[in-house]
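QA checklist item 7 of 12: single-chain prediction sanity check.
[x] sequence parsed
[x] length recorded as 266
[x] structure emitted
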Amino acid sequence: MESGDLLLVEQVEDGVLRLTLNDQTRRNALSDDMMRCLREALDRAASDTDVRVIVLAANGPAFCAGHDLKEITRARQSSDRGRAFFENTMASCSGLMQAIVNNPKPVIAEVGGVATAAGCQLVASCDLAYASPAAHFATPGVHIGLFCSTPMVALSRNVSNKAAMEMLLTGELIDAEQAAGIGLVNRVMSEDELSAYTTGIALTVASKSSMTLETGKKAFYRQLEMPLAEAYEYTSTIMVENLLKRDAEEGINAFIEKRPPQWSDD
């Protein structure tokens, strides 16, 4: 099958897996098929030792338009008015977002277009995000009588309450600079520089010990939900276990000896 016929294009180079959404006719919507493709690719990458970092990108003017509203509308024709389909769609989407957060590999969003509703949720779920000026973001469900409740979960964990509520209550687009200002994306750069910059960040991260990255990513998200004292107790335990790992010993020795570390990833 030609890459142009694929919903999701996968490329691996120098430890970086690039997953490119490629359903331009539907503005890269998170249809059932797209969510399945993404979930399967993420699950494979989680255990693939050739993959150290994952980049999510997209072809076309839209990064991701959220759920496929035509698919949702067709489901209303069923005897249950679409309830079973809606439940399955929300479960699939929630599982996909958690697969990004729980993936042992860092996941970076490269956003060169519009990301709305569940597409904005997709960006917010990634560990890092970089955007071009062409990127715009919105949780526009209120315009169609459907509050963006599930996108709210990822959004509210990345930006302040008032910034999140403004997006959710107005449904209006914000530009890339605004998104960077509220912490939804890390940085904005020109369209010509975006891919190279994101790849550079991915390669920098990929050069680290995969054991260390997995340990840190897991601990970061877990401690966020803990009270302060519990978080310090948990992360202190993680630090002790980390110090006992071979890569921590190698990294510290390499620093003292002023040489590049040689990671064994354990």
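[x] summary fact logged: The chain is about 50% helix and 15% strand.
[ ] second reviewer sign-off
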